[in-house]
Amino acid sequence: MEGLKLQNFQGGKPFMLLPASSVLCRSSFRTRRECSLTISVGCREFVGFTIRKEREMQMTTKASVQPVTKEVVDDKSKDLTTSGDSIRRRFLEFYASRGHKILPSASLVPDDPTVLLTIAGMLQFKPVFLGKVPRQVARATTAQRCIRTNDVENVGRTARHHTFFEMLGNFSFGDYFKKEAIRWAWELTTIEFGLPADRLWVSVYEDDDEAFAIWHHQVGVPVERIQRMGEDDNFWSSGPTGPCGPCSEIYYDFHPERGCTDTDLGDDTRFIEFYNLVFMQYNKKDDGSLEPLKQKNIDTGLGLERMARILQKVPNNYETDLIYPIIEKASKLANVSYFLANDQTKTQLKIIGDHLRAIVYLISDGVVPSNIGRGYVVRRLIRRAVRTGRLLGIKGDGRGNPEGAFLPEIAEKVIELSSQIHSDVKSRESRIIEELKREELRFVQTLERGEKLLEQMLADVVLKARENRILPCLAGRDAFLLYDTYGFPVEITMEVAEERGVKIDMNGFEVEMEHQKRQSQAAHNTVKLSVENDEEITDIISDTEFLGYETLAARAVVEGLLVNGKSVLQVSEGSDVEVLLNRTPFYAESGGQIGDNGLICTESGKKQKSVVEIKDVQKSPGNIFVHKGTIKEGVIEVGTEVNAAVDAKLRQRAKVHHTATHLLQAALKKVIGKETSQAGSLVAFDRLRFDFNFHRPLMEKELMEIEGLINGWIGDATLLQTKVMPLTEAKEAGAIAMFGEKYGEQVRVVEVPGVSMELCGGTHVSSTSEIRGFRIITEQGIASGIRRIEAVAGDAFIEYVNARDNHMRHLCSTLKVKAEEVTTRVETLLDELRVVRNEVSAAHAKAAVYKASMIASNAFPVGSSKKIRVLVECMDDTDADSLKSAAEYLIAALQDPAAVILGSSPGEGKVSLLAAFTPGVVDLGLQAGKFIGPIAKLCGGGGGGRPNFAQAGGRKPENLSNALAKAREDLVSIISEKTR
């Protein structure tokens, strides 16, 4: 055979240089002029190359391959690279060449309220799979960033578990199905990526004979390498009801020499599942029965990290080029060699490598550390990484600065590797680094104390368990103390406790947590889908045409009526109703702007006039506007022609506040920095609310500067410009995307020339002069790293100023001063009030000391070798400060050694307790803080303090006498034991 050139599957330049010698070939003809070969050169096998005939040839089992040029040699590195970036690119291009639209990864913060984070590649397509939103394309392919924390304890311990990973997927929305999905998966795997066919195993659902037949008869997988598996492994279901279907998975065999007998595909030492094909073909009904879906879909997922491990021939996902450079950076900071390290050190380095990827991409997508929801997920990962770094011996920033932070150093490497994953990460680098540094240093401040306290708690638990011959268990309240006071995520407490063989009372922890639930568990491994049992509105109602940018009134036709979610044909006066129109001037709530109010009316004539008062408009999947209101008059029917009219005054208020929100974001970026970004908003009729990322409260001068800028822009009377353009063009022009919004290929851009340009579908004023005025009402923190500004503009601004003016008039009248004298007068009154309060406190303290002098004689001696004076008394309703004065008097009067315990009930439902020990008592090993805590718990409270002085409180004064009796008994017992 002469003149052979080896080419990639899709053609193009030759890329493989083979020696001019005999080559063993196994052929399979594709066309008369083309065949696919498995070629062995020496001991190396190349799979799936295409041989193109350039002259007449005959196929034999031997072929002479001619030398090729240097140009061909250079092409090899381009087409056969196995880097993670290349695998991602080749996957997407493979499916693009088969009619799939390459779509961008969705944010890690999903629109879907049923999940906390984006956990699967199919999540962004959920509305399409449900039939709620019409498909934009028949076929799609994505490289989706995903986060899963449900098995975080396995990270670093196994070869494949991660919190952050990329899922490469191809999707069909009612287009192709099993045959094509299976064939293309095989071609991708064996031809594009070149995996040996005899290393691949396949699993199918136990009853899916169709998939089995395709794999065996059409693809050619031997029967012995196809396993039928049960529902738990190979049947995908979104929940108790909804879309579902069988799965088929492809596994790579690392040890084919073990044969095909008694093979377990779940054996991680031999196999790795890297490609999952879901055939979404059924709807599971309430009774558990399955009915075929009208539209059969394909949802696949190929784990990028897993494929990289296979192609790069490394023992685990962590040693691929996707993660290892991060591990290498951490190794340098810890001054250890990864490949020379023991298993424990390797695990710790893997944890840091994994967690830093998740942390960087979460913060980049707008998640900031907090104690709830997504914020808790990222805070937990940051703190887990910090603690792991300390276990590795990383001090400070790892570069000699003991006061520095090391996570930002490692994050720089993650950002460096991000260019092909998410290009926006690099532009957000400074915000990511700053957030990481701030969170790490904040945690380090309490970490050391928390670690010491936890170690002491665990030691006490283990000792007590040995004495009582029970299993050691840390109380839930102690775990909560670590969480609430020292910032220890309970999962870290559990890990440390597990290392000591101690369990945690999680029921007790949950009780103590109250409303602070561990929301990270919401980031579970299931995407909930459902198909309505009732009539599918989206099947019978077309998208609503929105006219509200051009007009506030329009004629329309009632296409549907809903009462309590049920479709009806007619609704009468007094009923709440949801009205679906074919066209509407009403704005539906989105982008932070609330829905319009107004009226939907029929004209009076032969039929009775009807009036529906609309109080809210929402947008359902499929872009159908749902007008929610109450029928004030008459009857409304499906098919009726109506007049839809928006309340013009309320719409103007919304427009004013929406444009003011854009100006506010622009002013914030000018005053506190371009890195600040929107984290949420509300555009209402009476106010606007804007949430943004920032690490500290704004200073008064900054707020004044922001107000000054905005009011200046309002005075400029700038005309707004609105355009519709391609998304890529809008981003290139510098338009800012709004928080939480999804955009199509065409977007609406609202620009205040020279000030602001944002992607926005909301309604806006024509000129900034319509805003009239702007005033910030409040600025406050709502979560760690998240600030909130509430403000008013337009009519709401005028109303606010008038109300403040009325309050000032009333204040001036009450104080009998002029407006400019109010501040001075109030300060004078406050000074006078402080003097009076101090006098009252001093009087209470004197009274308490007097009471103390009366009870000092009640002290009694305890101890055989050393007499210690003990006093335990109730001081009625004495307040906490006065109780302290009484204790100080008694300690001085009784002299060393002495121990004083005092209690009181200063108000309804209140208990105050105090313990004061002289140095002689403390030297015996008694500590006031530790002693008073258990006593306070008897009164429904707690507390602590120094070894010589501690205060506590409670909520059950009815238990005070018993608590003091217990204190007297324990104090006598302990002192007697210590002084024998």
Describe it.
The protein is α+β, with helices and mostly antiparallel strands and 980 residues long. The protein is 36% helix and 26% strand. The protein is built from 26 helices and 40 strands. The strands form nine sheets. Strands 6, 7, 8, 9, 10, 11, 12, 13 and 14 form a nine-stranded mixed beta sheet that branches. A six-stranded antiparallel barrel has the order 18-21-25-24-23-27. The chain has a six-stranded mixed beta sheet with strand order 35-36-37-38-40-39, sandwiched between helices. The longest helix has 40 residues, at 429-468. The radius of gyration is 36 Å and the shape is globular.
Structure described in brief:
Helix content is 36%, strand content 26%. The protein is α+β, with helices and mostly antiparallel strands and 980 residues long.
Distance between the termini: 104 Å
For the CA atoms, what is the radius of gyration? 36 Å
Query: How much strand?
Result: 25-35%
* Strands, count: 40
Largest sheet: 9 strands, mixed
Enumerate how many helices there are, as a single number.
26
- Helical percent range? 25-40%
General form: globular
Structural class, by secondary structure, is alpha+beta
Low-confidence stretches: 1-79, 515-535
Q: Calculate the mean pLDDT score and round it.
A: 84
Descriptive labels:
40 strands; nine-stranded mixed beta sheet; disordered N terminus; alpha+beta; 980 residues
List the helices and strands and how they pair.
Blueprint: E1 6-7, E2 22-31, E3 34-41, E4 44-52, E5 62-64, H1 70-79, H2 84-96, E6 101-102, H3 126-129, E7 139-147, E8 164-173, H4 178-192, E9 200-205, H5 209-219, E10 226-229, H6 231-234, E11 235-237, E12 242-253, E13 271-284, E14 290-303, H7 304-312, H8 324-334, H9 343-364, H10 373-392, H11 407-416, H12 424-427, H13 429-468, E15 473-474, H14 476-486, H15 490-499, E16 503-504, H16 506-513, H17 537-540, E17 545-546, E18 553-563, E19 566-568, E20 570-572, E21 576-581, E22 583-584, E23 598-601, E24 611-620, E25 624-633, E26 635-637, E27 641-646, H18 648-672, E28 678-683, E29 688-693, H19 700-715, E30 721-726, H20 727-732, E31 746-752, E32 756-759, E33 774-783, E34 786-793, H21 795-815, H22 822-855, E35 860-862, E36 868-874, H23 880-894, E37 898-904, E38 911-917, H24 919-922, H25 928-937, E39 942-945, E40 949-954, H26 960-978
Parallel strand pairs: 6-7, 9-10, 15-16, 17-22, 36-37
Antiparallel strand pairs: 1-4, 2-3, 2-5, 3-4, 7-8, 8-14, 9-12, 11-12, 12-13, 13-14, 18-19, 18-21, 18-27, 20-26, 21-25, 23-24, 23-27, 24-25, 28-29, 29-34, 30-31, 31-32, 33-34, 35-36, 37-38, 38-40, 39-40
Helix pairs in contact: 4-5, 8-9, 8-11, 9-10, 10-13, 11-13, 13-14, 14-16, 18-19, 22-23, 25-26
